[in-house]
Write a structure and sequence with these properties.
This is Rrf2 family transcriptional regulator. It comes from Streptomyces achmelvichensis. The structure is a single chain. The protein is mostly helical. It has 7 helices and 2 strands, in the order H-H-H-E-E-H-H-H-H. A two-stranded antiparallel ribbon has the order 1-2. Helix 1 packs across helix 4 and helix 2 packs across helix 3. The longest helix has 17 residues.
Length: 152
């Protein structure tokens, strides 16, 4: 599974908004500078997040962006879906829409299992969890295995 630059930037921007939610709206430039995200790219991402109902914007001198919902209500999966679409796809197709034959037939349950595990992690972690550096125990436990940190 690959996390696109767009998804990575979106999550980082959302975390920046979560961390400063009590400070009022943040300008896109401030988010871009704080997270080293190209400003023009970030504008498109914030617009997608706004259309997805995750971010609200206000124009003017005191304007900027803020989370449209509490950080505790927005999962990492929500952010990724807002900017990239489905969490897991194969050749751009969602796994339930695929079919295989012969020796490849058991690929479908494998892709479905992969999707279920990705969902379990990304839907189970909120912006508030990451912003507070308090990941759920089941997620933190996965990082305790040294092999998780190495590439085979």
């Amino acid at each position: 599974m690959r996390i696109s630059a767009r998804a990575d930037y979106a999550v980082r921007a959302a975390l920046q908004l979560a961390a400063y939610r009590d400070s009022g709206p943040l300008k896109a430039e401030a988010i871009a500078d704080a997270q080293s995200i190209p400003h023009k790219f970030l504008e498109g991402i914030l617009n997608d997040m706004r259309r997805g109902g995750l971010v609200a914007s206000r124009r003017g001198g005191g304007g900027g962006y803020r989370l449209a919902l509490p950080a505790e209500s927005i999962s990492i999966a929500d952010v990724i879906r807002a900017v990239d679409g489905p969490l897991v796809s194969v050749r751009g197709v969602r796994p339930p829409e695929l079919s295989y034959t012969g020796p490849a037939e058991s690929l479908l349950p494998l892709w479905i299992a992969l999707r279920a595990n990705v969902r379990e992690i990304l839907e189970g972690v909120t912006l508030a969890d990451v912003a507070s550096a308090e990941l759920p125990t089941r997620v933190s436990a996965l990082t305790e295995d040294a092999a998780a940190w190495t590439n085979p």
